[in-house]
Structure prediction request, 1472 residues.
Amino acid sequence: MSGITSALDALRSMRRPAWLGPLVALLVVYAVFAIITPEHSFLRAQNLPMMGRQTVVVAICALGMTLVIVTGGIDLSTGSLVALTTVIIAKLLKSGSSPVFAILCGVAVAALVGALIGFFVGRLRMMPFVVTLGAMTALRGAAKGLASEQKIDCEPHGLDRLLDASLASPGIWIALALALATAALLDYTRFGRHVLAVGSNEAAAKLCGINAARVKILVYALSSMLAGIAGLMEFSTLTVGDPTDSFGLELEVIAAVVIGGAPLSGGEGSIVGSVLGALLMTVIRTGAVHMGMPSWVQEIVTGGIIFVAVAIDRARRPSARPS
Amino acid sequence: MSGITSALDALRSMRRPAWLGPLVALLVVYAVFAIITPEHSFLRAQNLPMMGRQTVVVAICALGMTLVIVTGGIDLSTGSLVALTTVIIAKLLKSGSSPVFAILCGVAVAALVGALIGFFVGRLRMMPFVVTLGAMTALRGAAKGLASEQKIDCEPHGLDRLLDASLASPGIWIALALALATAALLDYTRFGRHVLAVGSNEAAAKLCGINAARVKILVYALSSMLAGIAGLMEFSTLTVGDPTDSFGLELEVIAAVVIGGAPLSGGEGSIVGSVLGALLMTVIRTGAVHMGMPSWVQEIVTGGIIFVAVAIDRARRPSARPS
Amino acid sequence: ACPKDAPKPTADGEGGAAPATTARLKIAVIPKGTTHEFWKSVHAGAVKAAKELDVDIVWKGPLKEDDLKAQVDVVSTFVAQGVSGIVLAPLNDTALRAPVKEATAAKIPVVIFDSDLQGDEHVSFVATDNVAAGKLAGDHIAKLLGDKGNVIMLRYQEGSASTANREKGFLDAVHAKPTLKVVSDNQYGGATTESAFAKGEGLLVAQKADTGGVNAIFTPNESTTFGMLLALRKSNLAKKTKFVGFDASEKLVSALKDGDIDGLVVQNPFNMGYLAVKTMTEHLRGKKVERRIDTGARLVTKDNLEEPAVKEVIAPDLKKWLGE
Amino acid sequence: MTSALSLLEIEKSFGPVAVLRGVSLEVKRGEVHALLGQNGAGKSTLMRILLGLERADRGAIVLADGPYAPRGPADARERGVVMVPQERTLCPALDVVENIVLGIEPSASGLLRRKEAHAIASRALGLVAGDGRIPLAAPVRALSVADQQLVEIARALAQGGLGTDAEGVRAKVLVLDEPTASLGKSDADRLFLRVRALADAGLAIVLVTHFLSDVREHADGYTVLRDGKVCGSGDAKTTAPEKIVHAMLGRELDTERGDADVEGAHGYRGAHAADVKEGEPLLELRAVAGKTKPRDASFVLRRGEILGIAGLVGSGRTELLRAILGLDPTSSGKVVLTAPRGIGLLSEDRGGEGLMLGRSVADNIELSARGPFMVRPARVDAEGARWISELSIRASGPAQRTGDLSGGNQQKVQIARLLREDYDVLLVDEPTRGIDVASKAQVLDLLRTLARRGKGVVLVSSQLEELVATCDRIAVLRRGVLSPSRPVSEWTEQKLLLEAAS
Ligand SMILES: Nc1ncnc2c1ncn2[C@@H]1O[C@H](COP(=O)(O)OP(=O)(O)OP(=O)(O)O)[C@@H](O)[C@H]1O
Ligand SMILES: Nc1ncnc2c1ncn2[C@@H]1O[C@H](COP(=O)(O)OP(=O)(O)OP(=O)(O)O)[C@@H](O)[C@H]1O
Ligand SMILES: [Mg+2]
Ligand SMILES: [Mg+2]
Prediction:
């Protein structure tokens, strides 16, 4: 008797994986579009790799954003940082550097910026929203200044092949590998536990001897480094350094993470969910184009789906005891 | 002896008004620009009413945003709502409605939208960030659809005189009156205290019999109504209904509120501070133009000042007991 | 002499025609944005005029590209600051009227360029005829396709008047040929290259461009053209699909050479900037100026690319003027 | 025996307020040392300094192996000092295992070793809780307050190095800051058995508590703090409780005369004694059932009486009160409220749902759903000041941040709010949790006075002697089912315990 009840209890107390909701949403939206697009153009073979490719930038940013949101923070500087990275890479390539050096510089600058943001948030205990709002504006300015307020043309030296038309394009696989690595980091390492703990209850984490400031610095540095890599992918798509690029990207990234099941209050989050969230947004955008929807209908639909996806997900979860 | 110490103690325990920091920041930045602009052009008589006028829209939005942030929420739909209101007013004016009817309709639609957002946040307990992110996208789409994806030209029927070049322009006085009313609402009414309580600890507020859901619905409705009034002011400036207008306005508004001393965690906030924050942003922008700064330098400076203003303010406050 | 030491031109200048002051003229030039190549050329032209005519210019766009409110604010800030004249590319033909009136009331003359403004407060309008320019593109596509086939137009952004005119001119020309079919004209590329690219790519798949669903494409400005070019290349459709774009940049011109683009309608932004500042200066110095000044547009193809007149338009010497 | 921990002349102030003014304390190996004092005496602050959460302004700490100046909890753990803090500090979103091994996760080159973590957690938890009662995979936010407290104690034990090796006790000093404040009797007893075993294994244990009976039964030595100074210490077993109380208060606790009447209820002017009809029913429950608990509860509460509700931890007492107030949905049954001035609840979870910790004391006291539309801030502060003096709340003034008060004084702020509202029906859940002996008597007296003046009170408490001493009638809640109430004369503590556990 008690064996059965305790087994039942265990089952009930088992956490429903956070990415289940977004996965269902993704499949449903995909199926709907597959059925209703004229001549089922949505099912065409090119469509899948194309959507994969279009998701790469948002998805890579969403990996880092998930970590940030799990600590209870937020990062509004992502879009500006992506733009800055494209500018740095283009500028270096133009001045004759090797592509590897350009990439390393771009990503390193991004990581440094992130560490600085982390320092302000973690060590000086400033609000992440404010710090990254300031960084968003300032980094955008820096990108424009560095690029003399124009797009930087340069020979891409093969970097444009990172993201090409086929499923075999390395960018997609790099993104996948990064997602797996980040998911493993969050779920299977001590550091990942500390990230969750800091987001869940910082005082408790500190009491257990966790250096919350260090955790945050690392998280923001990592997140910004990932934004830097996303910037590389963006450069590979654009083949120019564009200081006005990715304006507002951060909101799309945050939407992906939130759809993916991470509450902004921190302490929870799923990398898989965030990637699915990013995919969902691409599927909606692509489907709308296939349907020939006017842009404004598309915007209404996107808004509605963000909303419904999260509403359903929240409704299904057992409500926590008010504490 | 003990009289003196107790007086001292009372002085120390007196709450430092939250708007002191932003006021000092505003004065300092103003003085700096007055000194360093070439020919002190910053001190020209026309400059003050102009800056007042340029601040009106952000300041009115910031009033409502302060209330929302005090409840621990956030509203990302402000920019879209302002654009939607300009479109509604223009469309009605064009179709021959009287200006008063057009204004009432625009503001009423905004308030209704806010009540709906409040319903989702308050009653259905969805995250404000997500609800308003969805609303931001959807309302933008609605504005574009309503305007058939064009700017709507119309005879302004005198609405353009709401905000004109002089200090006597009614818009500035309306904004001031609204600010006083909102400040009084927050500080001197029971409803205001309930707003603060819901933001400080929602569970405690509920325990005391406060209908937290109702408070939130009212706050979002009020905030969106204010955004509607800001939309009227925007229309008065533009004299067209522009569905793409005010993209990203919400971030500027949030920055103003945060500079004004309201932490995003809720439970605190000052209307006066938020208005000062909005003014600070205008002063920076105007000063940058007077200095002939390139846009990118201006962006870096703005980012830096947001950051420094908040950092100084936070550093001065006594740190709370970590719990 | 140092300009700071000079007396202020408007402080003592009473009448609108206060031409013969010894003070240096300070002209504010306000573009729609600052990062498109187009505006760089305008800037260069403006600098050239400034150097030739010995005036100062202040170059200041809205902080965000295409932000109407920000542009209104920039204009009124310059009015409050008291410049000698304002040269403006209005983002909207109605919304900028009020600040322009304000300027005129403050005795600051305004020259409009690139896009028109309603009303007659401004001194002169210096611009390309956009409808005609769009028509150039439409006719070229009709010629390329032999009047037969499916055409896509990816629009720029909601509410932008100059591109809307080009789109209109293009559609007029295409609709004039009953055998040309416009399969999509309701999608907007948005303000940035990356949004135009994503839209373009989706559009190509949706309209089955790879199996001949799309024969020709038109895009009405630099960012949509570049975005669509990238989309064509990534989908291996460049050269297979006819593509006519608008405006010229280094990348677009080299794509034209490669044959990935079949034609570019180019305005003469350098000349536009030059003429706008020149017109303003002449007005300020008491000369009479024309109300409407056309700066011309032309179709550039691989064949006429080497003509010196074309070369001057598409590759003005920015370095010389902007010192970069 | 050698001394395992010596605190020497520790001083600490927060701004102008001196909290500790030269405290010295010595604890030997194998000793359970009780630390006593009124609310706000500085006990928790002292312990926080010991753990490196707060830094002393002056003074020194010496452990058996040398001087000790912790830079933080990690440092303290390194030296063998661990603590169960007074307020809850768990990560609500993490599960029980993750919480217990937080910061000491067993890992191989960064990768977690889940099996080992699970083993540590279940062993540590087994030491303090009955088998299988707390599901290891559940997120802690789903646990009751009591279970969370047990998890917290298990965590401290695990952090002290108990979980990894059965005999290898690595911790040297264990600090328990009011560990039993939210525990039932059986859990508390089990905890003290464990504490004794640890002491016998050579640990020095500091026990902060307000229960004098626990001091007598479970501690070896004691130290009393008053106004930031040590003012009494000795042998816990032999010292008379009166002497300890005298040291704490600086005077006698005169229960006969009723301390509370003098300080508190006497000054309490809210009740409208005039229009009270004796015995008029105020609140009636008819077979009320919630979503899970309670399952079946009926009673009638009349003017002038105190109804006690006894029950084991987890029996659903808190849920019953929440259901009555409408904070939790009911699934069947009926709550009939006839009280004209309404109904109010004192929460057992003061930090979580009771108080706005970030706001001032006055704001908390004044928080109310009713009242005039306009509010004058100056009046709010005046009202706050009045209640601070009436309940002798130790605060620097009405504007002080509530979160900066000591635990017991926070509890008093909650009580002040309830009194100010002048409700007819008061549901009080563990009202004496974390408050000192004098205040405890004061609060219970207050409840009696209120009843005498025509209020109806429902008192939930895990302190059975409190129930027996205060209530008119007592009902017992067992697995969600409420027994019919019986007059207090028919109950003794033993009978209550039997009834609740049967
Ligand atoms: N961060 C802080 N800022 C200001 N005052 C503080 C702070 N921390 C503690 N205090 C004050 O220090 C005094 C001692 O608090 P402490 O928590 O140590 O008392 P305590 O003896 O543990 O009381 P209790 O029995 O109620 O838990 C209190 O008056 C409290 O208000
Ligand atoms: N949201 C929830 N999810 C899962 N279990 C819950 C939840 N809320 C309460 N419980 C369970 O319900 C039981 C009753 O809770 P609780 O311990 O608060 O009752 P109680 O009788 O009031 O005890 P006490 O007041 O002594 O803490 C607990 O065992 C707890 O685990
Ligand atoms: Mg304490
Ligand atoms: Mg309880």
